[in-house]
Amino acid sequence: MSADIARAVELGRTGSAQVDVLYEGYHGRSDHRVAPTVALIRDGRVVIVVDPGMVPSTAAILSPLGSLGLDANAVTDVVFSHHHPDHTLSAALFPDAAFHDHWAVYRHDLWQDRDAEGFSISPDVGLIRAPGHTTEDIATLAWTDRGLVVFTHAWWTAKGPAVDPYAVDPEALHRSRARILDFRPYLIVPGHGSAFAPSADTPR
Length: 204
Fold this sequence. Notes:
A 7-stranded mixed sheet has the order 1-2-3-4-5-6-7, covered by helices on one side. It has a 5-stranded mixed sheet with strand order 8-9-10-11-12, with no helix packed on it. It has helices at residues 3-11, 59-67, 170-182; strands spanning 18-23, 38-43, 46-50, 77-79, 98-100, 104-107, 110-113, 120-122, 125-129, 138-144, 147-151, 187-189. The chain is globular. With 204 residues, the chain is of the alpha+beta class.
């Protein structure tokens, strides 16, 4: 655990972040359709969209955003949990945002190298590495007034799957899951399903 994140967990943050699911994802459908769970995090003036990927139409993201009183121009930051197209394809909806992945921040023509591990986007939102599904996976941690919420592809849904059939490094994935659960989040927002409260039945 990075010193920055460990200190945040030990001392607690202000819990000012607000989280919403804009679009609930799915996978494994017989019609070959797949979509990520697209989420919104607000922390003061920072407005973050996580995993704006493949959705039926742009309205699937923009309409719920609008119902919260926001438009695409209000989004200041976008996080890619990893670079699979189903999690990135709608990124162009937010042309003025800063884009975050495992090793850099991108905005317009500016590429700024940095490691995601321990990086803070805002006072109550940070990133950590969570490899396994891919070597480049990261998780987004948001401290809310109800506790920690983690956005991650370490799980596709609450049921796992226990063994990720596409994981490039299954052992790393199990370590990432264990690490995330060690943070004791009250809620996990997985890659392709509804948010869930971790329990003893959560695949490790």
